[in-house]
Amino acid sequence: MNKAQQEAYLREYSQAKKEGKSFFPYAIYKDHIVAILAFGWIIGMAIWHKVEIGKPVYAATTDFVPRPEWYFFFLFELLKIFKGQNALMPVIMATFIVPNVLMVLLLLTPFIDRGPERRISRRPIALATAVVVFASLAWLTHKGATSEAPTGEGPAIQNLTPEAEAGYVLFQDNACLSCHKLGGSGGVLGPDLSNEGSKAHGVQWHIDHLKNPQAVSPGSAMPAYAGFTDEEYQNLGTFLDGLGTKWKAG
Ligand code: HEC
Fold first, then answer.
1. Neighbours of 35 (CB within 10 A)
2. Is the CB of 209 inside a 6 Å radius of any atom of ligand 1?
3. Helix (H, G, I), strand (E, B) or coil at 82
4. Ligand 1 centre from 190 Cα, in Å?
5. Which atom of ligand 1 is nearest to the CA of 213?
6. pLDDT at 211
7. How far apart are alpha carbons 80 and 21 in whole angstroms?
8. 5-19 residue pLDDT tens
9. Is the pTM of this model over 0.85?
């Protein structure tokens, strides 16, 4: 700001202060009007879109695949970019390191950019940075919105025996797909099970593994499934033991 600009600003400011309105009641009155309009808008949209209250929370569910609200899709996608071997790394990178680095850069902006110019057209670096950040957010949000949500539903599998069919239903109902791939779809925390049968573990091995994964696979990160009946273990074990050999996903 040069001297003339500064004087002009101070002149305008003192003028406004002389003629201006007080905070109470004028500013508060205006704030209330805007707040009421905003609430009215939200209520109106909720009625217009016929928003429904979801199912009551059931904390013990195992087949719910969590998806964030749309305004967190960018973070959700960021997590996927950093997904590697380690389950913790994407969380640390995407929810702590990247946002905090950006936040610190934002706080440092007045110290980094000391130029007096305020017109955005004369500040190419600031403009480019803002465009890149917003474009990345928009792109990640779009990717998050259009990425296929993992569901409990698996691919079609041919030639299942009735026993294995019952096992496949259990497999889908217990969200095994949130960690395991089957014929191309599913999670990545555990190994792809499309050809599990070729390992020829045997049904009993699978039952032991399900009851206590760590007992047969030391250090396993798979949760134990201790609540099935003997028949259910048998069905699920039969299903797993034939995957890729007796029946194929795809
Ligand atoms: C939280 C993630 C997770 C879930 C949910 C999960 N698993 Fe696993 N699973 C793993 C991991 C990690 C491994 C690799 C370590 C191991 O073998 O135990 C694994 C391994 C396996 C193996 C391969 C064992 C081998 O070495 O051949 C089978 C079969 C299996 N899981 C079946 C299931 C079934 C069936 C379900 C659902 C009832 C299920 N998993 C649910 C994480 C998971």
1. 10
2. yes
3. coil
4. 6
5. 18
6. 94
7. 52
8. 899 999 988 888 888
9. no
